[in-house]
Specification:
Blueprint lengths: L2 E2 H8 L2 E3 L5 E2 L1 E2 L9 E5 L15 E5 L11 E5 L2 H16 L4 E2 L4 E2 L4 E2 L4 E2 L4 E2 L4 E2 L4 E2 L4 E2 L4 E2 L4 E2 L4 E2 L4 E2 L4 E2 L4 E4 L4 E3 L5 E3 L5 E4 L4 E2 L4 E3 L5 E4 L4 E2 L4 E2 L4 E2 L4 E2 L4 E2 L4 E2 L4 E2 L4 E2 L4 E2 L4 E2 L4 E2 L8 E3 L4 E2 H27 L8
């Protein structure tokens, strides 16, 4: 599908400079632009490319001033990066505008599907499950019994949603996501074996949540594992049973959250962070990558390190750690000058 410069300018409420009738059919980086593509300039480091790019249309901010002639048609907007993100979302929705139910899908008779849904081949919808309007379920998705999925949610191929779980509206679940698998609950018995503790709760994912590929969220032992509205989870994250993640918190890849930990709202958590169980993390907390948390964290704190400490202390400690070999040599030299036998200390 092609779009003219004028159509794009109207969509973004921008001002066009150049050929308003020029057409584009794809999107590119400014340094890789080619005829028929649209690009954008937001980072000053890439300004030089605007004079050489072959892109047909380039989005620029209102304050951009060209120092040399520009071959591309320009569309001036308040914020080129945000405008480009809006355009990408529009483009993505257009590409994924699938509707209809494949004859190869299996939908149990007691399941309900809303209007304008897409259900791909070999997807399975379990007994008494409900699928909301405009929701898209791609091929090879498993939806267990008694699952409720809201409106305008997208579930990509290979996702598994176990029985009794709840997924809100306008959510995105990427391939390999598992919602509602058993929590890691085992009780030691007298013969040193472990007895499995039944996990009879569920997972509730509220509205506007995005869950990255191969992330797993375990069902609660009792009650619900809670992912509050607006949460964004990266790929390869493990969320254990009875965890609660607060509104609009974002978590990067390879983070592991042990059971019953409560994370507040508006937190930012880096990659490979590890949480011990039963912790309470406050609101607006920032946690650096590869941090290990073994105790509670107060509101608005910024921590890093393993175990976690205030980030300023972490960087000071890192600087000292780097100097330890030299400090050790100085100590040995002093001990030798004082005739101290270091081997007997």
């Amino acid at each position: 599908m092609e779009f003219s410069g004028q159509q794009i300018a109207e969509l973004l409420n921008g001002k066009i400079e150049g050929n308003s009738d020029i057409k584009v059919h794809t999107i590119s980086k400014i340094e890789e632009g080619k005829a028929g593509s649209l690009s954008f300039l937001a980072n000053p480091k890439y300004t030089g490319y605007i004079y050489t790019t072959e892109a047909s249309i380039v989005l620029v901010s209102e304050d951009f001033t060209a120092e040399k002639p520009v071959k591309a048609t320009l569309i001036r907007v308040k914020d080129a990066y945000k405008a480009f993100a809006t355009l990408l979302e529009f483009y993505n929705q257009y590409k994924q505008n699938k509707v209809g139910i494949s004859p190869a899908a299996v939908i149990e008779k007691t399941a309900e599907t809303g209007d304008n849904v897409y259900i791909g081949a070999h997807a399975y919808i379990g007994h008494n499950s409900k699928i909301g309007d405009n929701t898209k379920i791609y091929p090879n998705v498993y939806i267990g019994d008694n699952v409720v999925i809201g409106d305008t949610t997208t579930i990509y191929s290979g996702v598994n949603v176990y029985a009794d779980c709840r997924i809100g509206s306008e959510c995105t679940l990427h391939s390999g996501v598992v919602i509602g698998s058993d929590g890691f609950g085992f009780a030691p018995s007298t013969n040193e074996a472990f007895q499995k503790v039944p996990q009879i709760g569920n997972v509730i994912v509220e509205d506007n949540v995005e869950i990255g590929a191969n992330t797993t969220i375990d069902r609660a032992t009792l009650g619900s594992t809670m992912i509050r509205k607006g949460v964004k989870l990266d790929n390869l994250i493990q969320v254990a049973h009875n965890v609660e993640i607060g509104e609009n918190t974002v978590i990067a890849a390879q983070t592991g959250i042990s059971g019953s930990t409560k994370i507040g709202k508006n937190c930012m958590i880096g990659g490979q962070v590890g949480f011990a169980g039963h912790l309470k993390i406050g609101d607006n907390v920032k946690i650096g990558a590869q941090t290990g948390l073994i105790k509670n964290v107060e509101n608005d704190a910024i921590v890093q390190g393993s175990p976690a400490i205030p980030y300023r202390n972490f960087f000071k400690s890192s600087a000292v750690f780097n100097e330890l070999p030299e400090l050790m040599r100085k100590v040995y030299k002093i001990e030798k000058s004082l005739n101290i036998d270091t081997d007997t200390k």
